[in-house]
């Protein structure tokens, strides 16, 4: 298996991410205002987007290509993307994914920035979604001896 690189995409590379999502039959698209991160072998094998919101970032578009799943790529990509992030990182997920995100340091969240709360309410009209959050400042303090893995 080729080694993976975890890195941000430049604005000029944004179309590569949309091509990746499309190749995976995913409805996701690269957010125009977000910081895009990918895991690459030769091609993109995983991706995510972090969009700025009041108090932190909103995580969207976390996707690992099917043949690459089960290898902790999502964890490594998320850790690379959040390495120097401050504040809180929020996400919306299907309730079936709660355990997955718990293992990545996220917990169910009832308090969201107003813009995310409004968006979640709109999304929940058509699908079941759970809001989760991860506070980056408390994780930074616990990282040195942390050996938890997904």
For the termini, the CA-CA separation is: 19 Å
- Helix tally equals 5
Structural class designation: alpha+beta
User: Which outline best applies?
Assistant: globular
Q: Name the CATH class.
A: Alpha Beta
Q: Which secondary structure elements does this structure contain, and how are they paired or packed?
A:
Elements: E1 5-8, H1 14-23, E2 35-40, E3 44-53, E4 56-64, H2 73-82, E5 88-93, H3 98-103, E6 107-108, H4 114-123, E7 130-135, H5 136-142
Parallel strand pairs: 4-5
Antiparallel strand pairs: 1-2, 2-3, 3-4, 5-7, 6-7
What does this structure look like?
The protein has 150 residues and is of the alpha+beta class. The protein has a single domain (5-142), classed as Aminopeptidase (3-Layer(aba) Sandwich), CATH 3.40.630.30. It has 5 helices and 7 strands, in the order βαβββαβαβαβα. It has helices at 14-23, 73-82, 98-103, 114-123, 136-142; strands at residues 5-8, 35-40, 44-53, 56-64, 88-93, 107-108, 130-135. It has a 7-stranded mixed β-sheet with strand order 1-2-3-4-5-7-6, sandwiched between helices. Strand 4 (56-64), helix 2 and strand 5 (88-93) form a beta-alpha-beta unit. The model is unreliable at 140-150 (pLDDT under 50).
Based on the model shown, name its key terms.
single chain; 150 residues; alpha+beta; Aminopeptidase; seven-stranded mixed sheet; 5 helices; 7 strands; 29% strand; disordered C terminus
């Amino acid at each position: 298996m080729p080694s993976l690189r975890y890195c941000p995409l430049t604005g000029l590379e944004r179309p590569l991410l949309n091509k990746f999502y499309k190749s995976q039959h995913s409805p996701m698209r690269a957010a125009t205002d977000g910081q895009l991160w990918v895991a690459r072998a030769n091609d993109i094998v995983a991706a995510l987007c972090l969009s700025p919101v009041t108090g932190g970032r909103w995580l969207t578009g976390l996707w690992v290509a099917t043949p690459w799943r089960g290898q902790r790529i999502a964890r490594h990509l998320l850790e690379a993307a959040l390495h120097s992030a401050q504040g809180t990182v929020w996400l919306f997920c299907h309730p079936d994914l709660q355990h997955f995100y718990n293992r990545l340091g996220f917990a169910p969240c009832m308090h969201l920035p107003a813009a995310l709360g409004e968006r979640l309410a709109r999304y929940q009209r058509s699908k079941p979604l759970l809001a989760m959050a991860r506070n980056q400042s408390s994780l930074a303090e616990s990282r040195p001896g942390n050996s938890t893995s997904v």
